[in-house]
Design goal:
The chain is of the alpha+beta class and 96 residues long. It has one domain: Alpha-Beta Plaits, CATH 3.30.70. It contains two helices and six strands. A two-stranded parallel sheet has the order 1-2. Strands 3-6 form a two-stranded antiparallel ribbon. A two-stranded antiparallel ribbon has the order 4-5. The termini are far apart. The site of one iron/sulfur cluster (SF4) has 13 residues, from α2.
Length: 96
């Protein structure tokens, strides 16, 4: 199977220990499956583009865009750190 057509894995399909089989293979692991009930949502107009959430997110699930940031729910595990650290209170944890 070519690299670009590889099946993306859910957390419970990972090899035991989630070991690294090749450089960059953690990209295939859907850590977003770990969310339980709540997800962060960025409130338009409140974000001042300080990028603190981008720095704090342990999953690298915050993506930088030309104007602001976006959450990649494929990787976001719903820990809420971004919401807690956002100085503008622009990220709210909402029910899925
Ligand atoms: S921490 Fe808050 S204000 Fe700063 S970029 Fe993230 S969402 Fe925007
Ligand atoms: S909830 Fe946690 S994993 Fe999801 S974007 Fe925020 S800091 Fe990252």
């Amino acid at each position: 199977m070519s690299k670009s057509k590889k099946k993306l894995l859910a957390w419970n399909e990972l090899p035991i220990g989630g070991y690294i089989t090749e450089p960059g293979n953690a990209r295939e692991y859907r850590t977003g499956d770990w969310r339980e009930g709540k997800k962060p949502v960025i409130k338009e107009g409140k974000c001042n583009n300080c990028l603190l959430c981008w720095i704090y997110c342990p999953e690298g699930a915050i993506e930088r865009e030309e104007k602001g940031v976006k959450i990649n729910y494929f990787y976001c595990k719903g820990c809420g750190i971004c919401s807690k650290e956002c100085p503008a209170k622009a990220i709210e944890m909402e029910e899925e």
